[in-house]
Every structure is written in structure tokens, then in C-alpha cells.
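Backbone-to-sequence.
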């Protein structure tokens, strides 16, 4: 039994997660084939472990969706959402805006305190018929910080610096703060 209050969704298997990633890539490819000159933002969540969603996370992703719709109302070409996936909520926004500018805006959003720290806001383009991610490295920007200690998140993740329960407790606390702030 979990002691977490806000990470309460169903547990998923590795096969379900891999299938969801494959489906996400197919969706990204479809959207960029339809709009090859556009920029695609894919929003998912940074939540390790077998529980990737909850009612609270779906509500917070709905708020993110509204914010992105407002921020990009002029540039928004197409959008898709899957807020109820057991592998975690997903948002897709096709934008008529420069990918590097969009990535800088997404990095600024991810750096905000609270729920946005949990968001993974990928920016993709079609480059010669292939998906290409516009990432921090490409823009010569610092990597994301670990939610637990503030160091390089990739280093902590690869080395398993923090146990799953420690990371989940931090994430659950972030969700709780956001939920309480929105009441």
C-alpha cells in the first residue's frame, strides 16, 4: 500500500510504458508530417516508477493545457490531448513559431516552482523527414536539475542517486502544494 497522497493512479508495466512511448513517437511523426514546417511541443510528466498519473495530475495538466492555449493562441495550428492515459497525461501542440524560441519558453516554464518542475516539455521539428528534438544541449543551456537535490537530473537518474520512494515523496509533495494552492 502506498503512503503517497497524490500519486494514486494505477501501476503500469514496463511493456505498457514502452508501448506508450512508441505511440507517442507515432503521434509526433503524424503531426509533423501533417505540418512539416511547424514546431511541435509534447508535454508529459517527469515521474519515475510504476505510477504515472492521478486525478490531481490530470487536473494540473488541464491547467497547463489552458495556459499553453492562451500563450500560443495566435500560433496554435493543431492540438491533441490524452489526459487519462494510465502511462501519464500527454499534450501535443503544433505551433507556427520558431522552435528555438519555443524551447527557450518551455525551459522558462519548466524552471518555475511548483507543478511546472514536473513537466517535460519537449520541442520537436521535422528535419529532412526525421523527428529532431530541440534540446538544451543544442541551445548550449544547462541541464535540468534533480527534483531532490538540485544537481544535474540526468546524473542523479543514471547513478540512481536517490531511491524511488524518496523521489516519489518529493513529487507527491510538489503535487500537494500545487493542489492546495489551487483550492
Amino acid at each position: 500500500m502506498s503512503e503517497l497522497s497524490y500519486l494514486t493512479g494505477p501501476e503500469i508495466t514496463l511493456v505498457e510504458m514502452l508501448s506508450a512511448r512508441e505511440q507517442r513517437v507515432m503521434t509526433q511523426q503524424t503531426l509533423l508530417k501533417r505540418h512539416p514546417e511547424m514546431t511541435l511541443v509534447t508535454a508529459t510528466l517527469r515521474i519515475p516508477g510504476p505510477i504515472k498519473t492521478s486525478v490531481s495530475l490530470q487536473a494540473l495538466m488541464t491547467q497547463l493545457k489552458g495556459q499553453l492555449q492562451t500563450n500560443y493562441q495566435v500560433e496554435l495550428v493543431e492540438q491533441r490531448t490524452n489526459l487519462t492515459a494510465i502511462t501519464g497525461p500527454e499534450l501535443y501542440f503544433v505551433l507556427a513559431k520558431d522552435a528555438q524560441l519555443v524551447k527557450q519558453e518551455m525551459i522558462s516554464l519548466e524552471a518555475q516552482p511548483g507543478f511546472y518542475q514536473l513537466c517535460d516539455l519537449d520541442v520537436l521539428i521535422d528535419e529532412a523527414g526525421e523527428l529532431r528534438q530541440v534540446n538544451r544541449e543544442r541551445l548550449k543551456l544547462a541541464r535540468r536539475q534533480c527534483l531532490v537535490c538540485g544537481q544535474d537530473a540526468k546524473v542523479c537518474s543514471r547513478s540512481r542517486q536517490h531511491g524511488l520512494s524518496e523521489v516519489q515523496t518529493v513529487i507527491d509533495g510538489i503535487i500537494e502544494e500545487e493542489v492546495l494552492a489551487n483550492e
